[in-house]
Design brief:
InterPro entries: DUF6122. This protein has helices at residues 34-43, 50-67. The chain is mainly alpha-helical and 68 residues long. The chain has one domain (2-67). The longest helix has 18 residues, at 50-67. The chain is elongated, with a radius of gyration of 12 Å. Bound molecules: zinc ion. Zinc ion (ZN) is lined by residues 8-9, 12, 25, 32, 59, 63.
Length: 68
Amino acid sequence: MLATGIILDVDHLFAVPLYDPDRCSIGFHFLHTYPAIAVYVILLSIPKVRTFAWGFLIHMVLDYIACL
Ligand SMILES: [Zn+2]
């Protein structure tokens, strides 16, 4: 289940530079914007994709913690 969130790291690959420790992923990458996060929350209400939604949200939380 947690591995599903790793899919979201694909959009990290489109970032330039590829890795910047001072950059916060949240709000920077397309799949890490607040509208995208809102979509993941909505997906939680759909049983078929709920496990993916949890994986995505946990990924957001981990990226957010990295920003602190
Ligand atoms: Zn990420």
